[in-house]
Amino acid sequence: MNKLYVTITIDTENPQTLYVANTCKTDTLLNSNNEKNYGMKYILSAFKNYGIHATWYLNIYEKYLMGEKLMAKVCNTLLKNEQDVQLHTHPVWLMDPEERKRIYMSQYSLEEQIYIIEKGIEDIYKLTGTAPIAHRGGAYGINKNTLQALSATKMKIDSSLFYKNPNCKISSIYKNSIHKLGGIIEFPVSVYRTNTNYLIPYKSDTDRIEKVDINYSAIDDIKNVCESNISGRHIYMNVFMHSFSFYKFFYDGIKPGVSLFKPDKKAIRKFHVVMKYLCTNPNVEIITVNQLYQKLENLKLSDNDNVPKIKRIRIV
Ligand SMILES: [Zn+2]
Predict the structure, then answer these.
(1) Model confidence over 137-183: pLDDT tens digits?
(2) How far is the CA of 57 from the centre of ligand 1 (A)?
(3) Which of 70, 160, 280, 314 is the most buried (most CB within 10 A)?
């Protein structure tokens, strides 16, 4: 039977939309206002129970907003738990902290992007002692210059290509396959196609591309995507989440009078079911992006660009 390598990647940051809009200033990574922390601390303790090593794409640029002390604590906590720290670029805090207009990598020139990535590598190295090798652009907002800048700064992997996402300004003939793109290895955000038939006749069927994500995907979707990859001989996929995936504001935004730190119990339950499924599936091996990179030399990558299809029937 074909082995499926699954990377669990966590965009590690405070909620950028709220921060850019200045509606939130509180750290959600480690802070909890004396309540239980459902950010990094909760995810790490769950990973410890499951024996999972994940990849944390760290928005190190929040250092210029929240201070280096917090970022140092974040890095120490991740390293202590033997997690993989890689680079997540939300350049606004380094390049445009006052106006907050340029929030995507694609809004910067090649020279600026090289500077942003160099600074990110340097800042992560300073706090972890290891230079990152993999990158994910904030909100997938990269363009061709980003790939060139990653290649110029000796990064190895980009993981921002998100098929059909409007923020993602690069295109590729591949949707899910790991491939060379613009001089660097591209490990796309894993996607699948859903086709929903509505039984009520006036509502037409929908055909959508979705990413494999703890918040957005149904449990059965994730299981079906795994099974499709295993039987389709597609040997790797990514499960996406955020460091703030378990807070209620993820969907609803922060409303006056509602605690910022209120847990989203439904998302938490879903996370545990998916982790248990992955850990107990004999055909699945959970590895970090760094471990996957080490394996790439010996892995026979297939051209089979599998996009799993999921059919759903809904009453309304
Ligand atoms: Zn982000």
Answers:
(1) 999 999 999 999 999 999 999 999 999 999 999 999 999 999 999 99
(2) 8
(3) 160
Question: From ligand 1's centre to the CA of 283, what distance in Å?
Answer: 30
Among residues 120, 125, 68, 71, the alpha carbon closest in space to that of 243 is found at: 71
How many angstroms is it from 77 CA to the middle of ligand 1?
A: 19
Q: 133, 136, 172: which is closest to 153 by C-alpha?
A: 133
User: Angle at Cα 177 formed by Cα 171 and Cα 182, nearest 5°?
Assistant: 45
- How close is the Cα of 15 to the center of ligand 1, in Å? 8
Q: 316 alpha carbon to ligand 1 midpoint, in Å?
A: 33
Residue labelled with tokens 């929030």:
103
What are the structure tokens assigned to 184, written together?
């660097």
Cα(89) to centroid(ligand 1), Å:
7
Among 18-22, 133-137, 259-263, 308-312, the range of highest mean pLDDT: 133-137
Separation CA 154–CA 135 (nearest Å): 11
Chain centroid, CA 222 distance in Å: 15
Give pTM, 2 decimals. Answer: 0.96
In this structure, CATH architecture of domain 10-190+236-268+284-290: Alpha-Beta Barrel (3.20)
Question: Residue 35: which pLDDT band, with cuts at 50, 70 and 90?
Answer: confident
Task: Give residue 79's pLDDT.
Answer: 98
Residue 13 in this model has a pLDDT that exceeds 70: yes
Cα 240 from Cα 142, distance rounded (Å): 18
Strands (E), 140-263: 157-158, 179-181, 184-186, 191-198, 206-211, 236-242
Q: Which of these ranges, 181-195, 200-214, 229-243, 279-293, has the smallest mean pLDDT?
A: 200-214
pLDDT of residue 303: 67
Domain ranges in the chain? 10-190+236-268+284-290
- Give distance in angstroms: CA of 211 to centre of ligand 1: 15
What is the rounded CA–CA span in Å between residue 164 and residue 215?
A: 19
Q: What angle separates helix 110-128 from helix 144-152, to the nearest 10 degrees?
A: 50
